[in-house]
Amino acid sequence: MGEISGVLAAVLSSALGGTSIGATRYLVNAIDPLAIGSFRFGIGFLLLLPLTIVRGDRWPRRGDWAAAAGLGFLFFALFPILFNASLIFTTAARGALALSTLPLLTLLIGAALGSEALTWRKSVGVVVATSGVAVALLTDLTSAPSGAWRGDLLMVAAALCMALYGIWSKPLIRRSSPIGFTTMSMAAGAACLILLSCLRGSFAPVAGFGTPQWLAASYLGAFGAALTFYLWAFALERTTPTRVAISVTVNPITASLVGAYLLHEPLRWNLVAGIVAVFAGIWIATTTAQRIQAASASASSRS
After folding, report:
1. Could you tell me if 176 and 234 are in contact, meaning their C-beta atoms sit under 8 angstroms apart?
2. Which of 176, 190, 276, 291 could be a cystine partner for 41, CB 3.0 to 4.6 Å?
3. Where are the alpha helices (DSSP H) in 146-206?
4. Coil, strand or helix: which one is 242?
5. Residue in 74, 27, 23 with CA at minimum distance from that of residue 202
6. Domains of the chain: which residue ranges?
7. What was the pLDDT predicted at 6?
């Protein structure tokens, strides 16, 4: 049950990430990406901190503080900077496809570091799910601005940050707790973004914020940061980094579905086919452990 709950938490986390794109795009017209990241993870930290204290969740050990802070800089500071910068040069569709290299990067790096076995089912599942994203975004990938490859590379670099966070944070999360670790690492990333925003004067436009802007920032903090990344850490505690990473392929699918609902865009055949392929890939990559456990239990009962 732990494996299943981890996969479901990862899928929900990625789905929430897809819905956060709308709030981010709305705020881009009011403040720069650094300030958006500061609000997102600063509010997320402020919401997670009292929850961690009230629940009595374990914080990372003193010996893990430096590692937790370093991973916070990597995931909650460098990742959003690379992510936002990539969209300056490339389209959202190409960026989504580049980010979907995350499960492949996680699989290869995890195998190279010896933290996760490279199996054929996980490999096939990753390829099928990533192909599903490409099919779903097929109609949006045909046009690209000049020099889009720079944005694609920046997004792959962002995916690399996410892959390393997933692999290196797993043992730290197990030694502490999902909420405790996420709170500490998010605090480090948010502090870095806030400092950079202050140095750049990124908060100046906040004086003109109205209710819509504050609602968008609050949504990003509560759902796009606190809940999304708690679920991500919860998933990493219960299943492998690759099985968590493959759920990111749900992100562009969710964003497309939200666009179809809110903007009354037609559900084209490629989006439907992409949805089927994504969930087929997730199923292939995440059912290995359950089958092995079932076979082991059956063998034990016969003996």
Report:
1. no
2. 190
3. 148-175, 178-200
4. helix
5. 27
6. 2-287
7. 86
CB 175 within 8 A of CB 64: yes
Length of the chain: 303
pLDDT tens track for 120-157? 887 888 888 778 777 766 766 666 677 778 888 888 89
Closest C-alpha among 85, 82, 104 to residue 157: 82
| Average pLDDT score over residue span 287-293 | 55
Dist. CA 45–CA 69, nearest whole Å: 13
How far apart are the C-alpha atoms of 242 and 102, rounded to whole Å? 9
Confidence at 252, pLDDT banded by 50, 70, 90: confident
Is the pTM value of this prediction over 0.85?
no
Whole-number pLDDT of residue 300: 44
Tokens 């949805």, residue located: 275
SS3 (DSSP) at 29: coil
Angstrom distance (rounded) from CA 208 to CA 274: 41
The token duo for 259 is 């666009």
Q: Judge contact between 197 and 39, C-beta under 8 A.
A: no
